[in-house]
Write the structure tokens for this entry.
Amino acid sequence: MTEIKLPKPLYQAELLERPNRFVIKCYCQETETVRKIYLADPGRLPLIMQRGREIYYQPDFDNKSRSTEGSAVLARMDDGTYVSLNSHLANEVAEAGINAGHFKEISNREIHKREYTRGNSRFDFLLENRQDRYLLEVKSVTLVDEGKACFPDSVTARGRRHVEELTAWQRETGNPAGVLFLITRNDAISFRPCQEIDPEFADVLKEARNSGIEVLVYGCEVERKFIRPAGRIEQVW
């Protein structure tokens, strides 16, 4: 089963402001109060984090050890599209998809190790089959404008380093590697790196692809109760 169930209950709220990268303030319809909610996606989320946006969060009102009162799970766009607000969920979806053979480019491989450390980076998965080992990094994509998905939505030195070290892995070990861009919403038609936002990342990704690093792009089906991997997304770059 490739479906990842989302937590219950989810409370509906209206976004008021984002004081910092990891906190949003929302008016909660369920409790008729303003709540401070943890946001586990440090991206800029420019088209999502807008005042009045419909937010769904997992409440945690009585936990005195935390400074927030719940965790953001989903946003609902004006057209009804749900977007995952927890970038960590992308790894769970990726793991379920790998185990189910959902991603065609790596369907003949199994997970050997999660969170594999090499050099100065920690990668999401080390895969293997009888022939070789395959280093895989997963990136969660939420920026979609009129069906066009783009990554990153802010400058990412960490992302650039990951791609550079994937290329070094391939060169030094002779083993393959790839980046899985998982678009955690269901309205993407195409994908490209955001040259205008982070030209260095875009250039490094192009160089990596030219040197043999696989670039995989898949969408997700996202609903109030679950998220699961969907079909391959066309790359236009």
